[in-house]
Amino acid sequence: MIRQISVFVENQPGSMMNVTSVLTEEHINIRAISTFDSPEFGIMRLVVDDPVRAKESLTKRGFVTRVTEVIGAELKDEKGNLNQMLKILADGQINVNYIYSFVIREGKAPVMVFHTDDFDKAEKVLSAADVKLVAEEEL
Predict the structure, then answer these.
(1) pLDDT per residue over 39-88, tens digit each?
(2) Is the separation of the CB atoms in 69 and 6 below 8 Å?
(3) Among the residues of the chain, which ranges form H helices?
(4) CA–CA separation, 64 vs 62, rounded Å?
(5) Residues 54, 109: contact at Cβ < 8 Å?
(6) What is the phi/psi pair of residue 11, to 5°?
(7) What phi, psi does 4 have (nearest 5°)?
């Protein structure tokens, strides 16, 4: 499992930079990021090298944050691999709530990060299909 931090930010210029500035000041490395916005607010989802310290630092500065678990699946950079992983999950009747990727891993394969309502089942069906799951310490 991988822990990600979600940060709620106002939908206005500089709000994301305010989050990344805090993390930069605290020497926390951002490994992956995904954003979602609505007219009033945005949600930044980040995989960082120290999610607990990131949450503490951001909360101390007034940000609303949450740490949740996600699954990381290592996929070779080949056509159809994402589709194959999603097929495995669909065949296992596992819903994917959201998904994003990060590709810069110092010579390692890209990782698809996703959230589901049934982590145990998702891990079992992916492992049974020989999909390499990535633990937080492997990032």
Answers:
(1) 788 999 999 999 999 999 999 999 999 999 999 999 888 899 999 999 99
(2) no
(3) 15-25, 51-60, 81-91, 119-128
(4) 7
(5) no
(6) -85, 80
(7) -115, 155
pTM of the model: 0.85
- Tokens 């937080």, residue located: 136
Listed range (106-110, 115-119, 129-133) with the worst mean pLDDT: 106-110
CB atoms within 10 A of CB 87: 12
The CA radius of gyration of the chain, in Å to the nearest whole number, is 16
Nearest 5°: the CA angle 73, 79, 85 is 35
**Alpha-carbon distance 113 to 120, whole Å?**
15
Sign of torsion, CA 110 137 69 127?
Answer: positive
- CB neighbours of residue 118 within 10 Å: 14
Q: Where are the alpha helices (DSSP H) in 3-118?
A: 15-25, 51-60, 81-91
For residue 50, how many C-alpha atoms fall within 13 Å in the half-sphere facing its CB? 11
